[in-house]
Design brief:
Length: 100
């Protein structure tokens, strides 16, 4: 982990995607090595939750543009992305989408 003088632009951050993680912590710009799964050190509870995350990610791809725009408008007022709001809503059970 390293404190950087100023946050990079999105083009530069996208170039490092999967290698470095950039974020703010207590007002400081931080860069760190991208976290990797340790493989067999996962707990049974963590492994049991993975299908839920996979399913919620697939729902995002099938969601209507109108609903995605609503999440984008919600995300503009905070530090989360529209996809983050979708995941939080789905996993917590606040929002349920009708589907077959």
């Amino acid at each position: 982990m390293a404190i950087i003088k100023q946050m990079l632009g999105m083009k530069q951050i996208d170039g490092f995607k999967g290698k470095l993680d950039f974020y703010y912590y207590m007002g400081l710009a931080i860069a760190r090595k991208w976290p990797r799964s340790q493989g067999n050190s996962q707990t049974p509870a963590s492994v049991a939750q993975q299908p839920m995350f996979t399913y919620a990610t697939r729902l995002w791809a099938e969601m209507s543009p109108f609903v995605k725009t609503s999440y984008t408008n919600l995300a503009n007022a905070c530090g989360l992305r529209n996809f983050d709001w979708h995941m939080r809503g789905y996993i917590s059970g606040i929002y349920r989408y009708p589907h077959e």
